[in-house]
Amino acid sequence: MKVAENKMVALRYSIKNSRGAVITEIMNDTPFRYLCGSGGILPALEENIYGMHAGDQRSFVLLKEEQPGLFEDLHIDVVIDEVLDPTPFEMPQIISKADCSGGDCCC
């Protein structure tokens, strides 16, 4: 299964600045899990991992000129540990006004 919208992704990563200083790193820790497409990670990071499979590794650079809000280039190493279908608990619940039945309605 590949990284795509509405897939649960477990990944490990290392982010360094252009001088090689580690900004954050979880390569030896428990993988970070998120629902792809939910806004749980930087959009540019997510774009770079789309299509990857469990076991894949990739290195890339996010250039400050191309990413609003970045003060310096970021060098990222990422490893995909798992790509799974989410459980019903992991999927966001979308409630429409048609679902409202009064009383404790959230609408």
UniProtKB/TrEMBL annotation:
GO terms assigned for molecular function: peptidyl-prolyl cis-trans isomerase activity
Protein's UniProt name: Peptidylprolyl isomerase
Annotated organism of origin: Mucilaginibacter ginsenosidivorans
Species classification: Bacteria, Pseudomonadati, Bacteroidota, Sphingobacteriia, Sphingobacteriales
